[in-house]
């Protein structure tokens, strides 16, 4: 985003008009409204990485959160990891905490099949497309120390902000995936 776009970007607090929105994105807004979860949103250029989200995060007043889609070596267990964007991901450390074989990034095919997501748009909201709970939700406890939580609404051209309290008390229960909390360290 250039500096001109930063100063003219418009935040929104209600469901955007459905024109030019994907159905899966609209379903995110439906879920937030159904569970009375207030949000602030922002449309922006496609963000394929944590670094690409920086300007949106500044405008929304949140810290960057990584959303990683992982699997075990055998590709039989799948995980969605939420962790602070400034932390380095260490597979060995996480593998030891969740007692699983070596972890790696799951393929885009699994991401599409299990979460209805594409690379760059990984988000907790993808769990609404996993009613069989094939994907386990992992959350680094440091994510919960922030007042707000930011995420994509299943598309990487928008970002949303909700309170972390609403994340834990409303959104996660609505998604039906019991989280496993982990402690990822910088060491």
Task: Explain what the structure shows.
- The chain has 187 residues and is of the alpha+beta class.
- It has a single domain, classed as Alpha-Beta Complex (YbaK protein).
- 28% of the residues lie in helices and 23% in strands.
- It has 6 helices and 9 strands.
- The strands form 2 sheets. It has a 5-stranded mixed sheet with strand order 5-3-4-6-9. A 4-stranded antiparallel sheet has the order 1-2-8-7.
- Strand 7 and strand 8 (158-163) form a beta hairpin.
- The protein is globular and about 45 Å long.
- 35% of the residues are buried.
- Mean pLDDT is 91; it is low at 1-8.
Defining traits:
single chain, 187 residues, alpha+beta, YbaK protein
CATH architecture: Alpha-Beta Complex
For the largest beta-sheet, the strand count, sense and barrel status come to:
5 strands, mixed
Strand order of the largest sheet: 5-3-4-6-9
CATH class term? Alpha Beta
Task: Tell me the β content.
Answer: 15-25%
Low-confidence stretches: 1-8
SSE-based structural type: alpha+beta
User: Which fold name is given in CATH as the topology?
Assistant: YbaK protein
Helical element count? 6
Family: Belongs to the PRORSD1 family.
Domain YbaK/aminoacyl-tRNA synthetase-associated: 44-168
InterPro entries: ProX/PRXD1, YbaK/aa-tRNA-synt-asso_dom_sf, YbaK/aa-tRNA-synth-assoc-dom
Protein name: YbaK/aminoacyl-tRNA synthetase-associated domain-containing protein
